[in-house]
């Protein structure tokens, strides 16, 4: 599945830009359905492997197209909370799978996993294409119709439509969406900003706070909580290594893990993907999303390797102290470099970074 996710991440941005957000959802759902069906009807290991690979491909594409589509269709005052709730569905799905997986067979679990994919297949007939993508490719009538459908038939969309069209026209005068363009001086710092955080789906707490306190505040609080959680866990291993307070170290380890998981889920988990979908202009969003998605997917195997190497050289306590230092650096990193995007349209966000349009 990790290999599939890496491949999906590699092509996610370009696919989404070439055929559109809605058509990419069709491809995503086909991969999901193929994956589950392969697992359901498998009689040996090869079909199981193919099923997991197909699910990984779908997941790699979803990690980009999902947040981007939501960011492009939701109003600015609802965008953060709406996207946080949507991203938290992955947490609910995983929890539900672990729960029912304790009582049913893996074969039945695969059948149940296929049900949401079939529901998505039906829903795709009714959702509109992203208005911003339609405007980018020059389909003005479809753009206005999609925006009106999303905002309601009686809503006045003239100002929003004009703002989107003017901004896209200015961007299209600059450059095409190529991966090498990201390393121009005006874009490279955005790439650096957005791939420091890790990727774990946000929870309902983050959804309720993100549009109130903002992205930067929650990210800094999350990084600080992770820093404290890793430090407490490392301290518990250090006490255990020296046979100090043996009765305290297991409790301290549990507290450390819980302190880490809470902030991780409401901050660094989902918010980075929200900001990634907001901060990049549409003329580089595909390439930027590919790079961010690929880097995030590559973090799964590399983190296991790094953890194994650190544990052998530095022992568990040293490993967690290093992780704590990295999270502590994250607080400063977010405070210094990550812009606030709360309560602003995508066009307003990009306009607040004037160097992009120079």
TrEMBL record:
Which GO molecular function entries does the Swiss-Prot or TrEMBL record give? transmembrane transporter activity
Q: Which keywords has UniProt assigned to this entry?
A: Membrane, Sugar transport, Transmembrane, Transmembrane helix, Transport
Name the Pfam families on file. Sugar_tr
The places in or outside the cell where this protein is found are: Membrane
Q: Which membrane topology term applies here?
A: Multi-pass membrane protein
| Cited Gene3D superfamilies | MFS general substrate transporter like domains (1.20.1250.20)
Residue limits of the Major facilitator superfamily (MFS) profile domain?
1-342
InterPro entries per the record? MFS_dom (IPR020846), MFS_sugar_transport-like (IPR005828), MFS_trans_sf (IPR036259), MFS_Trehalose_Transporter (IPR050549), Sugar/inositol_transpt (IPR003663)
Q: Mark the transmembrane ranges.
A: 23-41, 53-70, 82-100, 106-127, 218-239, 251-276, 313-335
Task: Indicate whether Ribosomal protein appears among the record's keywords.
Answer: no
Q: Which PROSITE patterns match?
A: MFS
Q: What is its main location?
A: membrane
Mention any one GO cellular component term assigned to this protein in its UniProt record: membrane
Record-stated family: Belongs to the major facilitator superfamily. Sugar transporter (TC 2.A.1.1) family.
Protein name as it appears in the record: Sugar transporter erd6-like 5
Please give the organism. Quercus suber
């Amino acid at each position: 599945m990790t290999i599939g996710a890496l491949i999906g991440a590699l092509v996610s941005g370009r696919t989404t830009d070439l055929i559109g957000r809605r058509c990419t959802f069709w491809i995503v759902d086909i991969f999901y359905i193929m994956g589950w069906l392969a697992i359901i009807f498998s009689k040996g290991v090869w079909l199981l492997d193919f099923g997991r690979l197909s699910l990984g491909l779908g997941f790699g594409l979803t990690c980009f197209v999902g947040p981007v589509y939501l960011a492009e269709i939701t109003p600015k005052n609802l965008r953060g909370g709406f996207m946080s709730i949507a991203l938290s569905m992955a947490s609910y799905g995983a929890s539900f799978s672990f729960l029912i997986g304790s009582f049913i067979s893996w074969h039945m679990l695969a059948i149940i996993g296929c049900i949401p994919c079939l529901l998505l297949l039906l829903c795709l007939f009714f959702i509109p294409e992203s208005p911003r993508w339609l405007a980018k490719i020059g389909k003005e009538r479809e753009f206005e119709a999609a925006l009106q459908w999303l905002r309601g038939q009686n809503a006045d969309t003239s100002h929003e439509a004009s703002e989107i069209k003017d901004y896209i026209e200015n961007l299209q005068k600059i450059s095409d969406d190529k991966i090498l363009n990201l390393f121009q001086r005006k874009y490279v710092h955005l790439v650096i900003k957005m791939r420091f955080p890790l990727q774990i789906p946000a929870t309902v707490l983050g959804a309720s706070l993100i549009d109130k306190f903002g992205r930067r505040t929650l990210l800094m609080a999350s990084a600080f909580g992770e820093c404290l959680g890793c430090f407490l866990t490392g301290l518990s291993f250090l006490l255990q290594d020296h046979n100090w307070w043996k009765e305290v170290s297991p409790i301290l380890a549990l507290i450390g893990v819980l302190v880490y998981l809470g902030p991780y889920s409401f901050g660094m988990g989902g918010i980075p993907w929200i900001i990634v979908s907001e901060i990049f202009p549409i003329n580089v969003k595909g390439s930027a999303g590919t790079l961010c998605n690929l880097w995030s997917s590559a973090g799964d195997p590399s983190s296991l390797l790094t953890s194994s190497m650190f544990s052998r050289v530095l022992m568990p306590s040293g490993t967690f102290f290093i992780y704590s230092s990295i999270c502590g650096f994250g607080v400063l990193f977010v405070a210094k470099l990550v812009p606030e995007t709360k309560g602003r349209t995508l066009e307003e966000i990009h306009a607040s970074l004037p160097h992009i349009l120079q």
